[in-house]
Amino acid sequence: MKSETLKLENQICFKIYTAEREITKLYRELLKELNVTYPQYLVLLLLWEKHSLSVKELGQRLFLDSGTLTPMLKRMEINGLVERKRSAQDERSVIISVTKKGEALKEKAECIPDQLVENISMKKEDLLLLNNSLTSILNQLQSHQ
Amino acid sequence: MKSETLKLENQICFKIYTAEREITKLYRELLKELNVTYPQYLVLLLLWEKHSLSVKELGQRLFLDSGTLTPMLKRMEINGLVERKRSAQDERSVIISVTKKGEALKEKAECIPDQLVENISMKKEDLLLLNNSLTSILNQLQSHQ
DNA sequence: TAAAATTAAATTGTGTGCAATTTAATAACT
DNA sequence: AGTTATTAAATTGCACACAATTTAATTTTA
Q1: I want to staple B38 with a disulfide (CB 3.0 to 4.6 A). Which of A36, B27, B49, B60 is the partner?
Q2: What is the 3-state composition of chain B as percent helix, strand, coil, each rounded to the nearest 5?
Q3: CATH code, residues A40-109
């Protein structure tokens, strides 16, 4: 009885590990035209909403630290998608804002969610179930910090 | 109506992306004593069952290619966990076998699934639901190769 | 206010993960 | 048999991801 649960646990972790890479692979294809990675796309999604966010705020929303964000944002800056400048109010903070070029990608990206739905092609009901399950396990995982 | 589904899609992908990192973080803690990473632990799980597998077979089971496996297996070899030798039957193939030291880790690892269950602490019923949902989306994702 | 503590990014170092290419061995074909 | 095609690893190059440390700025506190 117990060992079933243990095996199941392992399966679930491995499946999440595998699903993450499959999703990244799918996004790689969909984002090829925009010349951005999936994590960069996540940053853009936030900046298309808010225009400007500090590195700290981006980190809080994406659960990423400066060790990941700093070099990634520098690459996005080099590609002309974002600007980085120190906050005048607090010189410790770095404000990231989306450039016109970055803003322009929003249009090209409009079709991506549709394409994603096509590729995954699951019933809305099943997607809701999956969403609820993921919310539940994320709450558990993140409750330990 | 459609746009809700699209948003949901994005949420699910981001949640899987986040959950994968939270799970890896949890495993990092649990595997610290064994001095292996989560992907290395997955290799060991297979080798504890089969003792010897080719790089190709490991890749098929873990959905990883030689670009990932070769350097990882070399690190595991350096740490004395596995041996790598060319197959006599087919010199193209490299056979990975677990060493005594690698075998010895199996005992230390016995408690990991229990600790995992403790940390996640979800009802078996919810775990089954999540497992089914993940199987479903993985089938969808992997059906496109 | 001066020293100590905290905070935000950046940096350093290690380990994946994968596309693309290369190398070597085997299989298939003419 | 000799050429071509295929296959299995390895290699190269790039982009995360994160622990640990460092640097600089701001707060807190004595």
Answers
A1: B27
A2: 70, 10, 20
A3: 1.10.10.10
